[in-house]
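Predict both folds.
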Amino acid sequence: MTLVQLEYLIAVDTHRHFATAAEHCFVTQPTLSMQLQKLEEELGVQLFDRSRVPVRPTEVGKEIIAQARIVIAEAKKIQELVQNQKQELSGELRIGVIPTLAPYLMPLFITSFLEKYPHVRVVVQELLTNEIIEKLNHELLDVGLLVTPLDNRNIKELPLFYEAFMVYVNPNHQLAKQKEINPAELLPDDLWVLNEGHCFRSQVLNICNRGGKVGGSEGANFDYRSGSLETLKRIVETQHGLTLLPELSVLEMPDDKKKLVRSFSEPQPMREVSLVVHKSFLKKRLIEVLQKEIIDSVPESIVKRQKQKVIGIS
């Protein structure tokens, strides 16, 4: 049994396809298949059910794969020990970030991070929360930037800051006359929200504490479903109603757009923004410097804000 064989085993489990696994391991499929066959012969068990598409691990295969992930993670820690002795950080850092954070948070820190750590290759994927968690569990990401708490025992959460929800309201809407808005004043018929699957949608509905129809008045002839907050902003500006935005998204707004932004009355609803990693995560130094760079780049008024009324994502 070798570490290479265990890495091939994990790759097939992750991709559920021998050819794809071989491609990600930079070997030919016959080479990968031969090594796994040798491993099965040595162990005296069948690790995968090859008759199914996609391939699936057998019951004993699942247990062996789980242990293989632990072994490989521990082996990689040896590499980290060596890396930690070096003056310069290097390697690849794979980050998953949710769409309601990516366009507003990433520009704040990514340039300075790359300038400070030029030997680090940063790979960023914009994904939904459940996709980030899945990729962390399969070691396809090193760290996620998303909203917590998650209530997932396999995930470690590293809170960064608490971001307020803001109201973006059409200038002709009655709430536009107010400086602050009480969540109880929000009507679902006036509210434009993101598609299902976005945690921000769940939080918005939790703030309103209402279910049912959203995004247009009863009998309206315009129904738009979007995965983009920027699109919802344009709908509010040109049509009617209102939407909710994360605080970071309004920082760089031009003055004419900021006139449409309203705060909630105290206690303001917040979302907890965190770095998340798998409980057995690697690349600790890289993640530590990433955490510091993010905190240093976010406005001090947000970073120093105490935890208040955190809105859940379920």
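Second protein follows, with its predicted structure tokens after the sequence.
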Amino acid sequence: MTATPLTSTQTTVSATTWLRRFLALDAVVTGGNGLAYLALSGPLGDLLGVDRALLVALGAFLTVFAAGVGYLASRQQPPTFGVQVVVESNLLWAVLSIAALFLWLSPTTAGSVWIPLQAVTVAGFAMLQHGALRAVRAS
């Protein structure tokens, strides 16, 4: 068995594949979250201690955002600008989630666990996407 070094083309394909996978995962998770907020705003609002109208608005936003992220993931070469917008939006979401937890919301215990958990998840998506985008640019 011989080891062959990756060519620049193979590295680019690999980095682009990972970028598309991270975008697709983000789209699926965000879309699922958005649809859950839309369809179950009453029970989730009660569980999390978050206003139902806020969950509906967030659900609508997340569903549209997820569709955009999914579109980027479907591109053979996702545009750099679009990916940067997703990364920065995810980071903003994470920061605003934590700020809202302390400044505006009065969540239940479940909400006090869920809000930081989803903020960390979204920040993780941003970091994975940012790293993959850097790898695409470097190759």
